[in-house]
């Protein structure tokens, strides 16, 4: 049965971005994960927003259920995706769209790239006019992985994603990832 996360705030105007209050456990948890993953390589977090896109969350949940049945285990990881502010706005509305794949290269395949290393994902952010950068903390279904290469236009048969064998994961289905939080921060 499908359930929305307990942290979600239901709004009549169907707002997709909700600022997470600094005094909540939710904020502290995301802050600590980001702080540890960035290894102090930033000046300060401006805000953390919870993304509430019910349609994309439902599709992601359906994929999660399918992966769990098929693989007999949970292969969800929380990974980072750094991008420009304009791209972040598109991701919030339309999730991760593979038609933009390849903007920053395709060394491990032509898909959407995520990393467990926030400092690595930071390279793909660009500061806005206020010197603020955007990075998503994303729920990603990696499923069964294999080493990727630049000639891969999609995942090889029998696999769900490609990887560098370390911290980079590439997905090939839009509903395989859900942008859960957007972290706006300033770098050093």
TrEMBL record:
UniProt-listed InterPro entries: Mono-ARTD/PARP (IPR052056), Poly(ADP-ribose)pol_cat_dom (IPR012317)
A cellular-component GO term for this protein: cytoplasm
Signal peptide location: none
EC number: 2.4.2.-
Main localization of the protein described in the UniProt heading: nucleus
Keywords: Glycosyltransferase, NAD, Nucleus, Transferase
Family matches, as PANTHER family: PARP/ZINC FINGER CCCH TYPE DOMAIN CONTAINING PROTEIN, POLY [ADP-RIBOSE] POLYMERASE
Name of the protein: Poly [ADP-ribose] polymerase
Domain of life the protein comes from: Eukaryota
UniProt GO MF annotations: NAD+ poly-ADP-ribosyltransferase activity; transcription corepressor activity
PROSITE patterns recorded: PARP_CATALYTIC
Gene Ontology biological process: negative regulation of gene expression
Location(s), subcellular: Nucleus
Alphabetized Pfam families for the sequence: PARP (PF00644)
Domain PARP catalytic: start-end pairs: 4-188
């Amino acid at each position: 049965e499908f359930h929305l996360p307990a942290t979600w705030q239901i709004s009549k105007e169907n707002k997709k971005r909700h600022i997470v209050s600094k005094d909540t456990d939710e904020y502290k948890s995301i802050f600590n994960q980001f702080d540890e993953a960035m290894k102090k390589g930033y000046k300060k977090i401006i805000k953390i927003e919870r993304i509430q896109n019910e349609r994309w969350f439902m599709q992601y949940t359906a994929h999660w259920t399918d992966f769990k049945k098929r693989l007999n285990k949970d292969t969800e990881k929380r990974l980072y995706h750094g991008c420009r502010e304009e791209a972040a706005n598109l991701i919030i509305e339309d999730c991760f769209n593979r038609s933009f794949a390849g903007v920053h290269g395709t060394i491990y395949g032509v898909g959407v790239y995520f990393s467990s290393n926030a400092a690595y994902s930071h390279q793909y952010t660009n500061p806005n006019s206020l010197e603020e950068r955007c990075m998503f903390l994303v729920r990603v279904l990696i499923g069964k992985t294999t080493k990727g290469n630049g000639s891969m236009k999609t995942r090889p048969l029998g696999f769900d994603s490609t990887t560098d064998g370390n911290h980079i994961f590439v997905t090939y289905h839009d509903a395989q990832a859900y942008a859960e939080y957007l972290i706006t921060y300033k770098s050093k």
